[in-house]
Every structure is written in C-alpha cells, then in structure tokens.
C-alpha cells in the first residue's frame, strides 16, 4: 500500500491537496512506512475553484496510492480521488507522527 503525504518541506503535512506542488510517497511495509520518492505536481486550486484537467493531472501523479494525507481537500477533489480509489485522510503534523497514527488506525481496523 502506498500513501501520498502533502508537504511543502518533506517534514510536515502542511498543505491543502489543491495547493500541493509535491507529494512525498511512502509504502507500507509490515510494521512501518518507508519513503519511496518525491513526486512534483502543480497546484490546481484557485480560491475554491479548480481546473478539472489540472485536478485530473494531480490525481494521475498519485494514482498508485491508496491514501493521501493532507491538511484539507475540497469536496470535488475528494469525490474525484474516491472515484480513483484514493481515500483522503485529514492530517496535520510531522509526517512521521501522522504515518504512525495512520498505521495505528489501520492495524486497529479504524479505517
């Protein structure tokens, strides 16, 4: 399972999905997450409005991920992500801490 974290600095989940210009991709191993790569994109949200092609392009970048961790995501983006099988988890904090909490939720069955 792969997870995309929305972060401007690679340390802290600190951005809205629509404002993301980069995604930090992690893969779940048996008991932890491992960083795989940084993927660059383009912000598509413009004050509550978005360009559908740019939204699709952003989702294409993380298409192999099952989850995305972001500070927020708009309703239209959440719908589009869900249609592609990507679940949005709202998170803010250090990426490592958010991944640990997410792992705990997964292992306890609280998806």
TrEMBL record:
SUPFAM superfamilies: Nitrogenase accessory factor-like. It comes from Acetobacterium tundrae. This is Dinitrogenase iron-molybdenum cofactor biosynthesis protein. Coiled coil: none annotated. It comes from the Bacteria. InterPro entries: Di-Nase_FeMo-co_biosynth, DiNase_FeMo-co_biosyn_sf, NifX/NifY_domain. Residues 9-103 form the Dinitrogenase iron-molybdenum cofactor biosynthesis domain. The lineage of its organism: Bacteria, Bacillati, Bacillota, Clostridia, Eubacteriales.
